[in-house]
Amino acid sequence: MPEQPTVTQIASDNTLVMMNADFPRLAPKVLFDYLTVPELLQRWWPPTAAVEPRPGGRYRLCWPEMQWELFGEFTHFEPGRRLAYTWQWQHRPDLPTRHVDILIEPLIQGSRLTLTHSAYSAEPQDQEDRQSHLDGWLHFLGQLQSLTSNPT
Fold first, then answer.
1. What is the reported pLDDT for 13?
2. Which of 31, 46, 111, 139 is deepest in the core (most CB within 10 A)?
């Protein structure tokens, strides 16, 4: 029987989103690959992805049916350990550039991902965006857990 997906929100205030997700079947390097290799990203998140896998490299994730494009630059790229990048929606130029920082820790079995998405002001539009990101990460990290929890 596959493990039930669990993504846990941790100590977040209204300026950021923080959460943990455990991946008992994935070594840290494999989990990192699911976050950076287009063919693996497309299995759980965007329909199309382009990634320059290096510090300073750029990425572009696309949802053509919705006409959404998410893009940014990797500010930290350490395979199996840490990934950080800027976050900007092409269809929402009114929103500021956000930042995502992902730490990956080895567990006795598998890996733990800790994600921080920031920064948000107290303004209603920013708080709506924060809630959207919280909901999105809960959903999509759950998708990734479900995908990787079944033996292949």
1. 85
2. 31
User: Do 48 and 33 touch, CB atoms closer than 8 A?
Assistant: no
> Is there a domain that residue 113 lies in?
yes
DSSP codes, 60-89 = EEEEGGGTEEEEEEEEEEETTTEEEEEEEE
Q: Check: pTM over 0.85? Answer yes or no.
A: yes
Is residue 98 included in any domain, yes or no?
Answer: yes
DSSP 3-state of 117: strand
* Total domain count, the chain: 1
Q: What percent of the chain has pLDDT over 70?
A: 95
State phi, psi for 65 to the nearest 5 degrees: -60, -30
Domain that holds residue 88: 7-141
Is a pLDDT exceeding 60 seen at residue 4?
Answer: no
Residue burial 1-27, b: 16+ Cβ < 10 Å; e: rest: eeeebebeeeeeeeebbbbbbbbebbb
pLDDT of residue 1: 39
